[in-house]
Amino acid sequence: MEKQITSGKRKGLEVVSDSRGIIAALAIDQRGALRSLMAKAKGVEPEAIPSEMLAEFKEAVSRILTSHASAILLDPEFGLVASRQRAKNAGLLLAYEQTGYDKTVPGRLPRLLEHWSVRRLVDAGADGVKILLYYSPSSAAAINDRKHAWAERIGAECKAADVPFFLELVSYHEGMEDKSREFAKLKTDVVTASVEEFSKPQYGVDVLKVGVPVSMAYVEGTPGAERDWLYSREEAKRHFRRAASAARLPFIYLSEGVGNELFDDALQLAAEAGANFSGVLCGRATWKDGVPIHVREGLAALEKWLSGEGVRNIQRVNARLSAAKPWFAFREGNFAANLTR
Q: Is 296 helix (H, G, I), strand (E, B) or coil?
């Protein structure tokens, strides 16, 4: 990672982090996933959920929870009104990718929003730009070469606009269910190799957003974990250290759709392992349980839930960030040497 940072990128990173240089960000750029959660709660097909319901939910989350966050991640499709309702202390990250992927094409290939560019996102108020990339190191070379070139183009676009580039890596393996025991056996290798690849300078990434390197449902002692677990707590910590040592960039953890209690346990393991993460971009672990309340009882009930349980959820995550390291520490010296034990 380059030691020097441009003024625009530094300013953007400072705006989306707290006074310690820790990114305590709230993610609600979900589109397809949020629509599916709402549809399940309502007992209808996702297509029956109106766009206005997504926008209203995002606005309530932004309005009520951002006073407890250093930034909020939103999408320009349904989240621009919500972005203007965030607390003054919170920076803004905007997503650049289309939601989901074409399941008829192998490789979970990424697609950008057709009517947006990095420059347009910045003009809309973005302090940083985020893209999501499904990545498996074992995919066919031609597929991964397309993904590498795609990330390079986004990096160049962010460099030209002098805005931070956040790359969200979602690990998978072709032909396996993402939450399966089969994939859980591979996840640590997938995460570690992906972090190592996209730490390379040609991608121009400023912050990596990654899942924890173990499937928490298969870790001994995790709330609600499978009885036939794959990893002891100590083994899990070794995997946290191994993945962290592969990073040459600041990295933050995403909650991967798990509940608040499970994500809290993951952050505790990261802290005990000494992983040099620089914060979180946490979404569903904070607000997911509010979705059925919104769908069934309306906006006022959602606001009440967010003001109580939602605030407690985000505060619980924030309490775990005392172990996080500032993003700028990566530019002052790499922590990796301390993580190879």
A: helix
Architecture of 7-330 per CATH? Alpha-Beta Barrel (3.20)
pTM of the predicted protein model: 0.94
- Measured CA distances, 164 to 122, 158, 287 (Å): 10, 7, 26
**Bridge partners (DSSP) listed for residue 84:** none
pLDDT in tens for each of the 341 residues of the chain? 455 799 999 999 999 999 999 999 999 999 999 999 999 999 999 999 999 999 999 999 999 999 999 999 999 999 999 999 999 999 999 999 999 999 889 999 999 999 999 999 999 999 999 999 999 999 999 999 999 999 999 999 999 999 999 999 999 999 999 999 999 999 999 999 999 999 999 999 999 999 999 999 999 998 877 778 999 999 999 999 999 999 999 999 999 988 899 999 999 999 999 999 999 999 999 999 999 999 999 999 999 999 999 999 999 999 999 999 999 998 654 444 333 33
**Residue 204 region by backbone torsions, left for phi larger than 0, else alpha for psi between -120 and 50, else beta:** left
How far is CA 260 from its chain centroid? 14
Domain boundaries, the chain: 7-330
Task: Identify the CA nearest to 22 among candidates 70, 68, 62.
Answer: 70
